[in-house]
From TrEMBL:
UniProt-annotated binding residues for Mg(2+) 1: 46, 121
EC number: 2.7.4.16
The name this protein goes by in its record: Thiamine-monophosphate kinase
Residues reported in the UniProt entry to bind Mg(2+) 2: 46, 74
Pfam families according to UniProt: AIRS (PF00586), AIRS_C (PF02769)
Gene source species: Candidatus Methylumidiphilus alinenensis
Reactions performed catalytically: thiamine phosphate + ATP = thiamine diphosphate + ADP
Other notes: Reaction mechanism of ThiL seems to utilize a direct, inline transfer of the gamma-phosphate of ATP to TMP rather than a phosphorylated enzyme intermediate.
Length: 320
């Protein structure tokens, strides 16, 4: 499309607030709606389209898992506890084997987090999967993109770049082999427990779906701050390091999407409480940089400071 995704949303759909019970409308990982004082319903919706978000012939069980996982990841990014989900399925024809596998992948993840499928829609057409997920979070504890403050530490759960490597492999762009990279791309593990633990503790949070540079920039822009990341601190698995070395594609981990990790910021005075909280995370988590007053996103690497925008990466992908 000629105009970017975010420009399109802003021009055609974003409107001034109308209702007092919309705490957070368009522009964050979830909408926050306040049906009762102090409690928020977090709501998100994501679509996966064959040929755009996944390759034709993708394992249907993995697809069922991923279509729910990407939505649970958005709930986690708000600090919400997932509760209900709706599924709109468009399929070319009702293939029982495909449906059995897809439903298994979807249901086992839903069961794991105690999320109930409460509705949806089924239509015939080119394969496309839309999931709407809902959860609850205390209004004061919710994690917004706009709450990063100068001096905050920047943290990232899990690891970076594996899903990007998985995509390179599936597209035949590298001869590297890495089953863990394919698994990360096709079966991302939403950081639900980390997100719930961070509610009321972290300042800003986002899930990394479009690449760390692009998604952290959403936090920076919404909060009116800048940041410097430390290359040495980035949690790059050995398969990703080997890929960087052999292909020379060192920016891939910052640019590639589909990691579904949480990137969040914590006030300097609370950073020493984080290790205690991480016991509830069921994943690793490391400090990767610092929020600064100076706008923009910088990277400390090999003794220099690289301005990520000046490197030509200011045009983050605006649509997928
Ligand atoms: P995420 O990557 O976290 O899923 P998106 O980049 O998809 O978020 O969306 C950014 C924001 O725009 C979200 O608040 C989302 O709800 C909103 N949004 C996306 N498409 C539309 C639309 N067609 N109408 C209204 N809001 C939209
Ligand atoms: Mg998101």
């Amino acid at each position: 499309m000629a105009i970017g995704e975010f420009e399109l949303i802003r021009r055609f759909f974003k409107r001034p607030p109308l209702r007092f019970d919309v705490v957070e409308g368009i522009g964050d990982d979830c909408a926050l709606l306040r049906p009762q004082a102090g409690k928020c319903l977090a709501m998100t919706m994501d679509t996966l389209v064959e040929g755009i978000h996944f390759l034709p012939g993708t394992n249907p069980e993995n697809l069922g898992h991923k279509s729910l996982a990407v939505n649970l990841s958005d709930l986690a990014a708000m600090g919400a506890t997932p509760t209900w989900v709706a599924l709109a399925l468009t399929i070319p024809q009702p293939d029982e084997n495909w449906l059995t596998a897809f439903a298994n992948g979807f249901k086992s993840l839903a069961d794991f987090y105690g999320v109930e499928l409460v509705g949806g829609d089924t239509t015939r057409g080119p394969l496309s999967i839309t999931v709407q997920a809902m959860g609850v979070v205390d209004e004061v504890g919710s994690l917004k993109r706009s709450a990063a403050r100068w001096g905050d530490g920047i943290y990232l759960t899990g690891d970076l770049g594996l899903a990007g490597l998985g995509l390179e492999i599936l597209l035949g762009k590298t001869s590297k082999k890495s089953p863990e990279a394919i698994a990360k791309l096709e079966r991302p593990q939403p950081r639900v427990n980390a997100g719930m633990s961070l509610a009321g503790f972290a300042n800003a949070c986002i899930d990394v779906s479009d690449g760390l540079a692009a998604d952290l920039s959403h936090i920076l822009n919404a909060s009116g701050v800048g940041a410097t990341l430390d290359w040495i601190a980035l949690p790059l698995p050995s398969a990703v390091r080997q890929y960087i070395e052999s292909e020379g594609d060192e920016w891939m981990p910052l640019m590639a999407g589909d990691d579904y990790e949480l990137c969040f910021t914590v006030s300097r005075e609370r950073e020493d409480e984080l290790p205690g909280l991480m016991a509830h995370f069921d994943c690793s988590c490391v400090r990767i940089g610092t929020i600064e007053q100076q706008m923009g996103l910088r990277l400390k690497k090999d003794g220099g400071i690289f301005d990520l925008a000046a490197l030509g990466y200011q045009h983050f992908p605006t649509s997928k």
